[in-house]
Amino acid sequence: MQTKIAANAQAMRRWLNKAETALGNHSDRLNAINIFPVADGDTGTNLYLTVRAASDALDGLDPSVTDVGAVLTHAGQAALEKARGNSGTLFSVFLCAAAEPLAGQQRLSSALLATALHRAQIRAWTALSDPVPGTMLSVMEAASLAAGEIDALHPGDDSNHALGVTLDAAVAAALAAVVSTEDQLDALQAAKVVDAGGVGLLLILDCLRSVVLGEELQGTLLDDLHGYSVQDPHIHTSMPVDEGVEVMCTISLSPLDAATLRQHLDELGDSVIMSQLGGGEAGDGTYRWRVHVHVPTPGPAVELIRTLGTPTDMSISALSDTSGHRSQALQEAVDSGGHER
């Protein structure tokens, strides 16, 4: 293993830049196997656009910032504001949470990586109202557990070697977790594919390993994943069409109103994700939240959100619409104050 390891703030910038490129290269295959929670074939696109938002945000950050946590916080908040879909939202939550224990740190170590992965996977699981194993959540958990086990074997070891071993273990565990997703969800088992979001997160983690260790991405990492070969069909196109819509927005709410919103969104739809955006309490008892939900029609959800506050950055997307035409019509109806039911 190489001992010349790059684990500073500049390396974190390179990590997200590399992850953007890798996801761009793999977006078509990730879309092809995207059938859970809905077969809308956009996980690769959503992850790519979300990570691109994180990477682009760092282009405008002063390059003299050497605080690893500050760099990742800036990237994570930008990603969460512009997150796309379940997978993009969950990765944004993951990134924001991972940044927290790294605040004030000039360099990533084995112990810090283990702590960051643990914090991140816990936050991602709790952001979802109904978390499901066999998704990218399981991949996050596996990487976190593996990193924690290595760190426990070498307490206090902040050497480059320990960090390299921890990264290797985290990526290996993530790969094993991706393979296992096929057996954890009936939909994946029936289609004989692994979870698209899990594969996307595996790629992102391998990009981190690659940048820190100064090595290339592992070229054969994804070779044996079911459904992932370029010769395999776009399995999502054979799945039943989901007529629902995805509603996302940012809104300032008190903790009580946030809990109320989550409860009622759970009643209206599914895939509810709510995560606090940074900055803490605004001085009026409210906090900023990023909200994501799948609902049959947008009207009731939009009305509910507007009764509790003033949403910004609201987007409405038809889950079954790959052309964007129906999504645009839905968006225009909401923007004009009308209601699509």
UniProtKB/TrEMBL annotation:
<dbReference type="InterPro" id="IPR048394">
    <property type="entry name" value="FakA-like_M"/>
</dbReference>
<dbReference type="Pfam" id="PF02734">
    <property type="entry name" value="Dak2"/>
</dbReference>
<protein>
    <submittedName>
        <fullName>Dak phosphatase</fullName>
    </submittedName>
</protein>
<dbReference type="GO" id="GO:0006071">
    <property type="term" value="P:glycerol metabolic process"/>
</dbReference>
<dbReference type="InterPro" id="IPR050270">
    <property type="entry name" value="DegV_domain_contain"/>
</dbReference>
<dbReference type="GO" id="GO:0004371">
    <property type="term" value="F:glycerone kinase activity"/>
</dbReference>
<feature type="region of interest" description="Disordered">
    <location>
        <begin position="319"/>
        <end position="341"/>
    </location>
</feature>
<feature type="domain" description="DhaL">
    <location>
        <begin position="10"/>
        <end position="210"/>
    </location>
</feature>
<dbReference type="InterPro" id="IPR004007">
    <property type="entry name" value="DhaL_dom"/>
</dbReference>
<dbReference type="InterPro" id="IPR036117">
    <property type="entry name" value="DhaL_dom_sf"/>
</dbReference>
<dbReference type="Pfam" id="PF21645">
    <property type="entry name" value="FakA-like_M"/>
</dbReference>
<feature type="compositionally biased region" description="Polar residues">
    <location>
        <begin position="319"/>
        <end position="330"/>
    </location>
</feature>
